[in-house]
Amino acid sequence: AEHKYEHIQLTTPRPGVALITLNRPKALNALFSPLINELNTCTSSLDRDTSISAIVLTGSPKAFAAGADIKEMAPKTFSDAYGHDFIESWSNITRIKKPVIGAVNGYALGGGCELAMMCDILYASKTATFGQPEIKLGILPGAGGTQRLAHAVGKAKAMHLILTGDNFSGEQAEQWGLVAKCFDDAEACVNGALDTAEKIAGYSKIAVKACKEAVNKSQDLGVREGVEYERRLFHGLFGSQDQKIGMEAFANKKKAEWTHS
Ligand code: HXC
Question: Is Lipid metabolism tagged as a keyword (predicted)?
Fold first, then answer.
């Protein structure tokens, strides 16, 4: 489906790969409701689009996103926030079944850092500045930051970062395991994310979906339940055509030609 977006750009730079670029340069991609609404419309339509297998999410070289829009948030009352479940729809991107690869360059602060951490694979460059500076505004990270940062880097570091509001670099994020890979510059980071997305787009869609679902379960379940969940998905894939195609191709020393479903 064709959509006209104002605060994001959507392109298809590689076969099967959609690239979403946050595009609100005047405010360093500060996240406000119109942008989040477009992002949600875009990601849910890409999830239904059978020509797309993987999604890359990036910002500009200067900013992935400098946080929630402070000017939009400032006047909110408790009943505005609670009554409209402020921030709840910001995590819609985590409901997408296709893999989302985040490519972070420049600032990823507050809600920007939280949005990055919602991605399935996260890449950054040496230009990246991450941080959860909410403490400096008299609030706390409200879009999953306290939970996802603690899961990714451990409680000690997460507590330190969230209580001090100190920034951290793309290289630190890689060392601590928040980021899968840190590139030298912004261009290499986006290209690296597109390369990975293209590679994933070359695999069986149903197998990719199951892999993502199972790994994400590891964040919510204990190991025993998680392994059982994994095994059910594993059994289920023996009912797919792609399992037969993949294994027969191996036996015949041929390249697998996956179904398009
Ligand atoms: C609204 C923002 C913004 C933000 C930047 N801008 N960040 N507007 N909300 N989060 C705007 C500035 O007001 C300015 O607009 C323009 O973008 C350029 O920013 P500058 O500050 O002039 O740029 P620079 O000097 O390069 O400094 C960059 C910066 C700084 C260090 C990133 O902008 C900054 O500290 N921003 C706020 C970061 C932050 O606290 N984020 C967390 C927000 S709280 P004008 O009109 O003046 O040109 C949050 C809560 C999440 O995210 C909880 C649930 C989601």
Answer: yes
